[in-house]
Design brief:
- 41% of the residues lie in helices and 16% in strands.
- The chain has a single domain, classed as Rossmann fold (3-Layer(aba) Sandwich), CATH 3.40.50.
- It is globular and about 50 Å long.
- The chain starts with a helix and ends with a helix.
- Helix 2 crosses helix 3 and helix 4 runs antiparallel to helix 7.
- The chain is α/β, with parallel strands linked by helices and 269 residues long.
Length: 269
Amino acid sequence: MRREILRRFNVQVRGDGPRTLVFAHGFGCDQDMWRFLVPAFEADHRVVLFDYLGMGKADRSTYDPRRYGKLDAYAEDLVEIVQALELERAVLVGHSVSGMIGALAAIRAPRLFSHLVMIGPSPCYLEDGDYHGGFQRADLEGLLDMMVHNDLGWADLLAPTVMQNPERPELAAELHASFCATDPIVAKRFAEATFFSDNRADLARVPVPALVLQCSHDNIAPDAVGEFLHAHLPASQLHRLAATGHCPHLSHPEETAMAIRAYLAATAA
């Protein structure tokens, strides 16, 4: 069973050290997106990488669109992976939606995690009264409609919006290729679960401390969202990066690694 779980999610374990970091990628990506960040940690940490079901090299055959209509399914999978590795008190490093997936996993199984590192997280992407999530519902519904009727158009639109580093077009091109490589059914269902989730009420239930890494000029998770998370998580630190866009582990890995290492040093047992 353990071997099957690790195969299903293409789990890779590298490095060695007293602390384990579990890296969880964001929407439309896979574990390869961590390749610039992981070398900064694997010399003195155990590093775990994986792909969500239907993405990267994870097994597509057991994917059930009905189950993956909510983020809870991804949180259950994350718990299953950590349990299969027989880990306790791991640090979850989650990009974008995986910040909240990690929070849900910690709520479900608090003994498995000691800390969360959330890179560009958001508990709700929609505008709602005084809460500024960044998106109008009509805009997101238009994106999902485009995913159904225009396989390439949505990636053309979303990749540069996410990356926000126009002077480095190769980064948006890589993200675009990753989006396009994701199975269309999986991509649309994950987008629905991501962009229409509202986990604001869950923040107060997160049982472990968290670091919120907030990027500059992040169109996906704007600054007000980072402030909201910091205000509503029971124990959190908010660190603003100079890095622009939504993927600092790709665009500014050195700064991102320094911020994470400083947090890990300050929270070492």
